[in-house]
Amino acid sequence: MAHIGDLVAEMLAQQGTELVFGMPGGQTTALHDGISRRTDRIRHILMRDERNAAYAADAYARLTGKPGVCDVTVGPGANLLPAGFLEALNASIPMIGIVGELPLDWLPLKEKGIASQGFDQLSFFQSCSKQAWLVPSIAALPELIRTAYRVATAPRPGPVALIIPHDIFDAEWDEETIRIAVDDRSVRTPYLRSTAPGGAIAEAAELIRKAKRPALVCGGGVHGSDAAKEVTAFADRLGGLVVTSLSGKGSVPETRPYAAGVLNPLGSWAAIELIKEADLVIWCGSKVSQNTGMNWSLPTPEQATITIDCDPLEHGRTFRPTVPLLGDVREIVTALDRSLGGSLAGTRAEWDSRIAEVKAEGERAKAEEIASESIPISPPRVMAEIAKRLDEDDIVVSDASFAAGWIAQFLPAKKPGRQFIYARGQGGLGYSVPGAIGAAATRPDARIVTVAGDGAFSYTIGELATQAQFNQRVVNVVINNGRLGWIQLWQEIFFKNVQSAMLETQSVQPGFAAAAAGLGLKGIYVDKPDDIAAALDEAFAHDGPSVVEVRIDDRATPIHSFKRRMKEGADKPRPRPGTVYKLREWKVSPGL
Q1: Domain span at residue 462?
Q2: 528-544, pLDDT tens digit by residue?
Q3: What's the CA gap between 50 and 71, in Å, rounded?
Q4: pTM of the full structure
Q5: Domain of 448: which CATH number?
Q6: What are phi and psi of 585, to 5 degrees?
Q7: Where are the alpha helices (DSSP H) in 92-219?
Q8: How many Å apart are CA 83 and CA 55, to the nearest integer?
Q9: Does residue 557 contact residue 485 with C-beta atoms inside 8 Å?
Q10: Domain contains 426
């Protein structure tokens, strides 16, 4: 006789979910049993930590557009999911968490763990998800699964939690009484597409025609809409500057002359300089967050603005746009392109020349960093060697902190599409290794490359065993400075005192390459610039996962403002952090 775990597994498979990432428990064993009967359509990836299950599911969702599914058991399993849920919530990534629960009759005993491992899971997940449900009965379960997919994929996408009590999971499934059906429209994002009114499209097109120095800022919403090809075609005809957020990297190929890289304190110097000179800024699938908005100094009071977003609450959050365009990015960009009626490329020679000039200056500075022969090694030297070995179809998974900046500046997106995965919803350390597991399971024919500092890599080193178990084609690059580099510089610049950023001492120096070898991966250690190329060649040629640990300069930083402050000298007075970030001012964007 089939059980409800079979029902859940069958509905997941029919909904198009090929992979589930998680950690089993007694309360969810029925689900694993159900999946085991359907391995031709759906597989389970066993993770070492429930937090990492959510990160792996997140990467799966970013690469497929389908909801990433993760499973955890009640209590200690459930309480580890929020880090990944908050990442997905803030980054608008569709995800479904299947969460075990105590039997229904035991729920009054959940407080203080009277019933083992119990706590108020429903309230817990309501605080970190788009929506959460406690399944009240067997009969309600199929509709709640359909609802979970619909809510997860509907604009604005995000994570949902489906909490299933133990007695429901283990109950028999009478297939004649409870028949199942799925909604094939909610297989992937976006669940529905909409567009802005024709009058608003025409108004925005007229603003673009009038602009002398237009700029397009592409955020993660471009990838969420699967619109990179359409946005690239629009950018080709726009005749202006194009920059991206970290999450939007790959919205256009960065090899185009108009593309100036990532707009972020960690990103491209050219992007930071040029965006201030634009007279019109089109925010395309970008929520104009603190980092992309450069601490909300953008847009400037003089800049006209167009906002393109499927979420009505994003239009006017930090400024009043000149023209708001509410709807799906792909639909609106296509309509806007059609409304322009022809190419504007080449019609703004002065702006084109200025873009080329600033980009060339930035490239000269980057070339000097890449050429460094310093020991410890300069990170740009490492990134340049990685760039030489990346194919167009390879996937790069970034961890948080400085690694994100080194990737942003030195690994160019060569084609439109999501080839770069950044954990920017929360910006938390420890994403890259589990994210690579999700990416490799989703794209087994691609090479996955991760870049993480030693601080971030330490979070999830145990998950390397999962990469080894599945023999995934992952090259993990650890840029090890023995420090929490961002924290060290922050403490030094603003407090003139490094208090708590040291990850190692002379007597204790963790070896990540050696640890990787102990877990079944190829481990390679590099401490000289001339050895980087051979180490990466070996790792890229290896048929399985590897870790390349590179000892880098602990003073290196991709943040341009940090570099500037370091050059100013140690004795120059510096503001305390509270005065670095001004209070955000809500702005009204003018017309042209």
Answers
A1: 371-568
A2: 999 999 999 999 999 99
A3: 8
A4: 0.95
A5: 3.40.50.970
A6: -105, 130
A7: 121-126, 141-153, 166-170, 198-210
A8: 8
A9: yes
A10: yes
